[in-house]
Amino acid sequence: MGHKKRGYIRDTPEELVRDYKLFAITCEGGKREPEYFKVFEFLSRKIKVDVIENWMTDNEKQLRLEDKSAPKWVLDRAMKYIEKIGLIEEDDLWFVIDKDNWSDAQIRQLAAYCDDYPNWHLVISNPCFEVWLFFHMKADIASSDSKCCADFKTEITSFDRAGYNRFMFIERFQDAIANAKANDSDTNHYLPKWKETKVYQLFDAIVAKVSNVEIKEFISVKVPELRRFYTEELRTPKRK
After folding, report:
1. Are 69 and 28 in contact (CB under 8 A)?
2. Which residue has the higher pLDDT, 118 or 131?
3. Model-level pTM?
């Protein structure tokens, strides 16, 4: 994308001044992507991670499934979020999408919108988010036999006998950043080639705002604690 226009937000109202940076993420998929990103809310007090998908009503979720991630729908969701929360100059809005769900014309349209705002960013996985997950576990994606999104979803599940567990992947998110970056054949273009992803750009921005000490504590202490908590919660019978 080209040079972004300035002046999206001129003055930050005093009541919106805060001591953390907001990463607002609008993502696709069902539960996998939102649940993955929300874990990073625990990374540091210097950042706040908000998944816009979580702000939808059940009716809006159904409309999204029927509309197949049209640019207008995604932009409308983002604008409603901005109106509700209020972004300041230091905040970022990230669109995380799958190439498989969009036409080239739709992607160009969304990229053009992002190019007009200094704090709007578009990161794409080709063909799907599971490419990003793959890089958590393996560096050589050329060795993958997956030929479509369904194949990648199955392959990701096969990495552990217990199936897909977001915490197991998140513990290795730094590996994913390095592996995805090393496999990006054109870092200057917003559209990744087959079996490539730009999601590492989002995490580069997140990591830049936190310390190495915080990252180590997140991986060694917080993520294991969250993993145990949610595992126990799933095993606990629900009271009627």
Report:
1. yes
2. 131
3. 0.85
